[in-house]
Amino acid sequence: MSDAHLKNSHQQPVQNEISELALHDKEMREIAEPYEAPTTGPKWFYLFMVISLAIGSFYLGRHMGKLDASTHIGFFEKNKPADTSAVTAAQSPASGASLYTSKCASCHQADGKGLPGAFPPLAESEFVLGNPERLISIVLKGLTGPLEVEGQSFNGTMPAWEDQMSDQELVAVINHIRNKLGNNQASEIQLQDVQKVREQTTSRSQPWQADELEVAYP
Q1: Integer angstrom CA distances of residue 67 from 59, 70, 86, 95
Q2: What are the distances in angstroms from CA 81 to CA 70, 76, 178?
């Protein structure tokens, strides 16, 4: 075998190897580089966020004022007298009419005539026009069990208001009941009347029953 043939036989594998590398290199150049595409969340999530922001903004604007510091910091300008009108209004007791509307009218009705078989009437009721201490005791401690008013029978429970209203508020609402709602002939009670009954019944934790009231406040 000649030297030239041997030389060619040794060079052939090298040439084949180079051509294969070149082929693979070409293939690799034709494949696009990998990349990470952006992804979006579900549409309901973004809708929920928008609605939450809208509701939150409305709530803060409705209950927290202007969302600035002056709304939450109680300060007055230097050398400027404080405006106490709002404080005075907040501290002044509510009227008997407004107290009755907010605390009594839902059961006894706005006209005081009650609901037959459910809530007894206050208009022209002996429990209202009789001994004023009896009515004060009922409002303070509540009333439960069978009861007869103006020939009608009732059997329910009235809540106690001793922890819900001040003595001044009790005076206002009781006088409204005794002098309005068709009850024009009853005398007004005084603050000391409510204070007296409250002190007398301090130890009582149960609502009154009709027969007990007849004994305690004839």
Answers
A1: 11, 8, 20, 33
A2: 17, 8, 42
Pairwise CA distance, residues 92 & 170, whole Å = 14
Residues contacting 197, CB < 8 A, separation 6+ = 133, 136, 137, 140
Cα dihedral sign, 2-6-9-14? negative
> 40-52: b or e for each residue (b if 16 or more CB lie within 10 Å)?
eeeeeeeeeeeee
Query: What is the enclosing helix (H) or strand (E) of 22?
Result: helix 3-30
Q: Give the tens place of pLDDT for each residue, 9-57.
A: 545 555 555 556 665 665 555 555 666 666 677 788 888 888 888 887 7
Contact call for residues 158 and 143 (beta carbons, < 8 A)? yes
Provide the angle, in degrees to the nearest 10, between the axes of the packed helices 132-141 and 167-179: 130
Q: Which residues have CB under 8 Å from 103's CB, separation 6+?
A: 161, 164, 165, 173
What is the Cα–Cα distance from 54 to 68, expressed in whole angstroms? 18
**Domains along the chain?**
95-216 (1.10.760.10)
Joined together, the tokens standing for residue 197 give 């009954």
Neighbours of 142 (CB within 10 A): 16
195, burial (CB in 10 Å: exposed 0-12, middle 13-18, buried 19+): middle
pTM of the model: 0.56
Helix (H) and strand (E) counts in the chain: 11, 2
Position 210: which residue type?
A: A
